Amino acid sequence: MPTLASMAIPEEGPVPFEDALVVIGTYLVSSPQQREEEHADLVATLPSALEANGVKKLRLYQGFWIRDIHVPAAIALQRQFEPRPDDVIVASLPKCGTTWLNALTFATMARKAYPPASADHPLRRLNPHQCLPFLEGLFKGGREAELELLPSPRLMNTHMPLPMVPSAVPGCRVVYVCRDPKDMAVSAWHFLRRLQPDLAFAVVFESVCDGAVAFGPVWDHVLSYWRASTAMPDKVLFLRYEELLRDPAKNVRKLARFIGMPFSAAEDEAGTVDSIVQLCSFGHLKGLDANKTGHLDPLLPVPRDALFRNGASGDWVNHMTPEMASRLDKIVADKMRGTGLTFQ
Ligand code: A3P
């Protein structure tokens, strides 16, 4: 097997996962069918609900609504994921800024090998999700051995709540991004509509209020990382989408300090932070061919451009009545009471 170095991929990570795969190939430990069959009896006993679009089935596993295809991945992650101390995991609920944080973290962490202003930066030819291995995607498919072949430090991505990846804290570092659940609901509706145009917003809204969304309930997902961040701030960095929008440069500096790679005076002089912010900005990423064409996953026929819709906060006012907004706000506030976390 060729080595990563022989492919002109840096021997130090993070390397764009898509590039590394060219060398590693697909490495099956067990087939997705074997993994599913291994846990089929357990999965069949779990309470179930349909996702808002009525297509995918969710299962209530250890208090979280996990897509049934991801339950075996959650079990495998819980039992087998072995973090390295210098790993970084980007964690979030879908539609809360995952794509942006993937891009910012990759650009920040890999800036020595891939200067952000360079014309051949991986983020100019790859969708941000192609740069990071998606943990549940790999564990679902029995492909976790591919992670072992990546050079350190590795940068990975997950939507799983923290109890599904318990070894991540304190085993490595986690960067988490949350978002106002009202905007998350609106973003999710627009995204799901790309597959099912007649989906009513009210259906998505009710599923968010009930907690039955993939990887949710929203509040339990957010709190799993929030509590870890207050207990171990050097292990979990808790970010907010709205804060990233307000001051991306400040948050990139925070991120760099957290991963142990603060910007040097020379980098400050060279404007490296601004280059990263610009490279990962909504307007820039949205305009790139890598993000305008193709699909997210061969199995998920959603065009990549669905990841770049509006890129703003507060769009909920255009979709919710004041009553709906205060109902969701109250549900969330009740769940967050006493935790030190608020969304208002
Ligand atoms: P909207 O639908 O409100 O526009 P995720 O990546 O977790 O699926 O989140 C998608 C949301 O993040 C979408 O929100 C999308 O437009 C927004 N987004 C994607 N890239 C962004 C960027 N570079 N800057 C700001 N927002 C971004």
TrEMBL record:
One of its GO terms (molecular function) is sulfotransferase activity. Its EC number is 2.8.2.-. Keywords: Transferase. InterPro entries: P-loop_NTPase, Sulfotransferase_dom. One of its GO terms (cellular component) is cytoplasm. Belongs to the sulfotransferase 1 family. This is Sulfotransferase. It comes from Triticum aestivum.
